[in-house]
Amino acid sequence: MERRSARPAREIVVPGDLLDDGGMRSGNCTYARDGRIYAGVMGIKNVYQDTVSVIPLRGRYMPVTGDMVIGIVEDLGSSNWMVDIAAPYPAPLHVNEVPWKVEFGDTSRYLNLGNVVLLKILMVDESRKIQVTMKDAGLRKIEGGRLVEIQHTKVPRVIGKSGSMIQMIKNMTDCRVFVGQNGRIWVDGDEDNIAAATAAIGLIDREAQSENLTEKVKRLIEEKLPPRDGGASDEEGLQ
Amino acid sequence: MSGHTDMVLVDDAGMRIDGRRADEHRRVHIEAGVLNNADGSAYVEIGKNKVLAAVYGPRECHPRHLQDSNKAIIQCKYNMEAFSVSDRKRPGPDRRSIEISKIIAEALERVVLTELYPRASIDVYIEILQANAGTRCAGLTAASVALADAGIPMRDIVPAIAAGKADGHVLLDLNKEEDNYGQADVPLAIMPSTDEIVLLQMDGNMTREEFDHAVDMAFGACHEVYELQKEALKKRYSPGKGGDSDE
């Protein structure tokens, strides 16, 4: 597999910038006019094989089938809940899609306004109508911990290559962390640890484009949580 | 327009009262991402005009009957602060602000890929903090930077600038005095990649030749403003200077 080494030093493009006029294929967040490809959103130009695309820097989360997201219950119906998943549209969660047996009109016994839930996007149809489900492994109502919101475009940086960044945060802060694709992150653990993990996530959100992000995050957590005598000795010498 | 003055707006040497030549625009300053709670924002100064624009969305369209099942709608609100002009402006929407809100929304609708977000609404708020002629152009310039800053998919960024006629001379980017005592005002907004016109109005009288000359000058200036808009957007992400990633 060819590494994405073809990219010339991460060029930031804005809408309307000409990306290619020589027969490349139009990828994500681009549009073609008269055989030329233009950027359709502000982001980073990305060339992969014969396709040129733009990785957005900001923007609203657009749900994709299968995404794991964190939602906040906004409204109750007699057979469904309306959940805010930070998308342009509200997501209805039907009683058939929860792991409990809910009587008609009895929705408030299970989930109430302001409750936070882990969800999976079940379907997004042509007209962008969303359906979500809670019937899958690990999906549940969240209690305790803290909810952090970041730009959903930074989620891949929070996770890191094959989960390296998130694994490091989990290990160093001893927190339970769940990252929703919609940019909501749930962190649970001791108060100090949560504060450190939250600060680390904030740093990633602010400096996602910078070099040596892993190193910076590591330093930040070490500052916030000085290694105690027990347990953390393996992290010494990394000052 | 209409007013009369003994002031010499353009002197014999072709110099204007603020020291510009006929084809010079005022100093333009653009900053992106100035508001924390908005999805995208921009601050623009064109001469003494000071304009703040904020963008929210795409989000659920609130008055349900305005929803369009095929595309997103753009709701724009242009508002002049009571303190933005030398005589206190009576606050609230008036005929003029409603008209400007509408034309700016229509200009932006040409560039935003609204078909990606059916039933949604993209809300643009433009606040004129200080006015000195040409606020609709400054407002549109700010709004399009704010839209791009919000990460909203669009075909192009829209720069806007006015040209006009005062003291019998065709001038670029009229200031307050030239606008008040001049003969015509022609605001223009374009899509720089195709040179398509998205906003063109004319207030006052000009000959066909003067009009063509004014539009030509405004086109040139729009491209200059466009470069500044791009620079402002890119500047937001430059401190890290990009570089290679660590992952």
Structure annotation, total helices of chain B:
4
* Greatest contact between two chains: A-B, 42 and 41 residues
Shape descriptor of chain B: globular
**What is the CA-CA span between the terminal residues of chain B?**
60 Å
Could you please describe the fold and organization of this structure?
The complex is a heterodimer of chains A (239) and B (247). By secondary structure, chain A is of the alpha+beta class. Chain A folds into three domains: 12-56, RNA polymerase II/Efflux pump adaptor protein, barrel-sandwich hybrid domain (OB fold (Dihydrolipoamide Acetyltransferase, E2P)), CATH 2.40.50.100; 68-142, Nucleic acid-binding proteins (OB fold (Dihydrolipoamide Acetyltransferase, E2P), Beta Barrel); 146-234, K Homology domain, type 1 (Ribosomal Protein S8, Chain: A, domain 1, 2-Layer Sandwich). Chain A is 18% helix and 31% strand. Chain A is built from four helices and 16 strands. In chain A, the strands form four sheets. In chain A, strands 8, 9, 10, 11, 12 and 13 form a six-stranded antiparallel β-sheet that branches. Chain A is flat and about 60 Å long. The model of chain A is unreliable at 1-7 and 230-239 (pLDDT under 50). Chain B has 247 residues and is an alpha+beta fold. Chain B has a single domain, classed as GHMP Kinase, N-terminal domain (Ribosomal Protein S5, domain 2, 2-Layer Sandwich). Chain B has four helices and ten strands; from the N terminus they run ββββαβαββαβββα. Chain B has helices at residues 95-111, 135-149, 176-181, 208-235, and strands spanning 28-32, 40-46, 49-60, 73-80, 120-130, 160-166, 169-172, 184-191, 196-200, 203-204. In chain B, the strands form two sheets. Chain B has a five-stranded mixed β-sheet. In chain B, strands 6, 7, 8, 9 and 10 form a five-stranded antiparallel β-sheet that branches. In chain B, helix 1 (95-111) links the parallel strand 4 and strand 5 (120-130). In chain B, helix 1 packs across helix 2 (135-149) and helix 2 (135-149) packs parallel to helix 4 (208-235). The termini of chain B are far apart. Chains A and B meet through helix 4 of A and strand 3 and helix 4 of B.
